[in-house]
From TrEMBL, chains A, B:
<dbReference type="GO" id="GO:0043565">
    <property type="term" value="F:sequence-specific DNA binding"/>
</dbReference>
<dbReference type="GO" id="GO:0043200">
    <property type="term" value="P:response to amino acid"/>
</dbReference>
<dbReference type="InterPro" id="IPR019888">
    <property type="entry name" value="Tscrpt_reg_AsnC-like"/>
</dbReference>
<keyword id="KW-0805">Transcription regulation</keyword>
<dbReference type="InterPro" id="IPR019885">
    <property type="entry name" value="Tscrpt_reg_HTH_AsnC-type_CS"/>
</dbReference>
<dbReference type="Pfam" id="PF01037">
    <property type="entry name" value="AsnC_trans_reg"/>
</dbReference>
<dbReference type="InterPro" id="IPR019887">
    <property type="entry name" value="Tscrpt_reg_AsnC/Lrp_C"/>
</dbReference>
<dbReference type="InterPro" id="IPR000485">
    <property type="entry name" value="AsnC-type_HTH_dom"/>
</dbReference>
<dbReference type="Pfam" id="PF13404">
    <property type="entry name" value="HTH_AsnC-type"/>
</dbReference>
<keyword id="KW-0804">Transcription</keyword>
<protein>
    <submittedName>
        <fullName>DNA-binding Lrp family transcriptional regulator</fullName>
    </submittedName>
</protein>
<keyword id="KW-0238">DNA-binding</keyword>
<feature type="domain" description="HTH asnC-type">
    <location>
        <begin position="4"/>
        <end position="65"/>
    </location>
</feature>
<dbReference type="InterPro" id="IPR011008">
    <property type="entry name" value="Dimeric_a/b-barrel"/>
</dbReference>
<dbReference type="GO" id="GO:0005829">
    <property type="term" value="C:cytosol"/>
</dbReference>
<dbReference type="InterPro" id="IPR036390">
    <property type="entry name" value="WH_DNA-bd_sf"/>
</dbReference>
<dbReference type="InterPro" id="IPR036388">
    <property type="entry name" value="WH-like_DNA-bd_sf"/>
</dbReference>
Length: 146, 146
DNA sequence: AGTGAAATGCAGACTGT
DNA sequence: ACAGTCTGCATTTCACT
């Protein structure tokens, strides 16, 4: 985005802290009226700085206890857009990135059980032209932020 | 949480999709009145299933353009708690997990530039008794959720 | 869990700087 | 261009059924 001043950054921080905060509350924090805050938030969304608003849910509570990282090796060249389209419908895929390393992409997957993880792996492999995958199971989550 | 029925799950899904959706909108989706939805959301928050609501911000725009995943190989046995304590003060570390694989831990790091990434790597290595690290730079973020 | 009413917050148009 | 005020309308929130 072109001009992002101090106030925009403070509005962003407020929304990251609580996405359901009212415009008036944010305005009180940053010293602006509610309509002024809304105008800025709208611009921030239109320009792509704010991608959206989500609820952060405790995965443990829902029984999605097991997590794994999957290195994916593709056959030939597949565009990032194709990979994204292939994996987006799989809800177990929490994170996907293309990387500059020996692997082509790295996924982060959450599942309820080992059989569930295995089934998810199968669906990931079927979704695109994939040569092989290498999975490493997460033992404990030390840090989670950003 | 004790009793989480189908409707609770659908409310969760709606809030994950858009944390600023109104209770009336969610109620229309799940077949409940707005006050009923609010009561369920409040309970979901009190019981810890919903940890909060945040805005998802494009990191590129804020200048934290480069991201890397770091496989860490430790010397001897280090407890997860020690690793956490060592890396928590480093703000560039966005995610850290111990894993069951050839590496002992995997970090996800965000930096403003390659020199900044290098400096962060140095600090990560100094923070604990580490044998060696293997970094892979992220080319593009395909999916980011959960 | 639904209903209805009061309080609150939102979104648009308008004005001033 | 950007902030403030006003206003009609939607939403939240409470008491009650």
């Amino acid at each position: 985005m072109a001009g992002m001043d101090e106030i925009d950054h403070r509005i962003l921080a407020a929304l990251v802290a609580d996405a359901r905060a009212t415009y008036a509350e944010i305005g009180a924090d940053v010293g602006l009226s509610a309509p002024a805050v809304k105008r800025r938030v709208d611009k921030l969304q239109d320009s792509g700085v704010i991608r959206g608003f989500t609820a952060v849910v405790d995965p443990e509570v829902l029984g999605w206890n097991i997590e794994a990282m999957i290195d994916v090796y593709c056959q030939g060249r597949i565009s990032p857009a194709e990979l994204r389209a292939a994996w987006l419908p799989i809800p177990e895929v929490v994170q996907a990135s293309t990387v500059a390393g020996s692997a082509d992409a790295v996924l982060r997957v959450r599942a309820r059980s080992v059989p569930h993880l295995e089934e998810t792996l199968e669906r990931i492999r079927e979704a695109a032209a994939i040569e092989r995958t290498e999975s490493t199971v997460v033992l404990s989550r030390l840090i989670e932020r950003g």
